[in-house]
UniProtKB/TrEMBL annotation:
This is Uncharacterized protein. It holds the Pfam family WD40. WD repeats lie at residues 9-43. It comes from the Eukaryota. Keywords: WD repeat. InterPro entries: WD40/YVTN_repeat-like_dom_sf, WD40_repeat_dom_sf, WD40_rpt.
């Protein structure tokens, strides 16, 4: 079985150094060297 990329999330202007999933796995938080935190609805 092969893993297949389902989606590419593009928003940060600098590399991402931290990611975290919400307890219900519906949100993804990303933190970047561009000093922005993004919340992604991945449900």
């Amino acid at each position: 079985q092969r893993d297949v990329c389902q989606n590419i999330l593009v928003q940060h202007s600098e590399p991402v150094y931290s990611v975290a999933f919400s307890p219900d796995d519906r949100l993804l938080a990303t933190d970047s060297f561009d000093k922005a935190i993004n919340l992604w609805d991945i449900a």
